[in-house]
Write a structure and sequence with these properties.
Structural class: alpha+beta
Organism: Ananas comosus
InterPro entries: GlrX-like_pln_2 (IPR011905), Glutaredoxin (IPR002109), Thioredoxin-like_sf (IPR036249)
Largest sheet: 6 strands, mixed
Domain Glutaredoxin: 42-97
Shape: globular
Family: Belongs to the glutaredoxin family. CC-type subfamily.
Strand order of the largest sheet: 2-1-4-3-5-6
Subcellular location: Cytoplasm
Strand content: 15-25%
CATH class of the domain at 41-127: Alpha Beta
Order of helices and strands: EEHEHEHHEEHH
Helix content: 40-55%
Length: 127
Amino acid sequence: MQGVRCRPLPSGGAAVAAAGLTIDGGEAPETRMERLIRENPVVIFTRRGCCMCHVMKRLLATVGAHPTVIEVEGAEEEAAAALLLAAGGIPALFVGGAPVGGIEGLMGLHLSGRLVPRLREVGALCG
C-alpha cells in the first residue's frame, strides 16, 4: 500500500505538491486503512491508473480540498474488502471517517450543494 498526502502549492491555485505518507507495514491492511480514515479528513482509496480517482481529486482540489490518496494492491484490497465495499468499491472516498462512495457519491454531494459544507465540517477546508 502506498499513499500520498497532497498539499496546495505556496503559489496558490488548484495544483498540488505531493509529500510521502508513512504507512506502517506491520499493521494488517484493514487496520491500516481504518487508521488512515480516522486520521485524515478526506481519503481516497484507488488502484494504479484509475481515471475516476483523477476526476475525484480534481473536483476536490477545485473546491479547495486536498485528499490523502491511498493506492491499494491485490492482497490489500482483498483483506479490506468489507471496508471498501462499504464505500462502494474502488475508488472509495471517505470524508470525516464516513464512506461517501465513488465518483457517483462525490458528484451527488457536490451537485446537491452539500460537499463544501461537509468538507468545512470535517476541517478539510479553511474559511
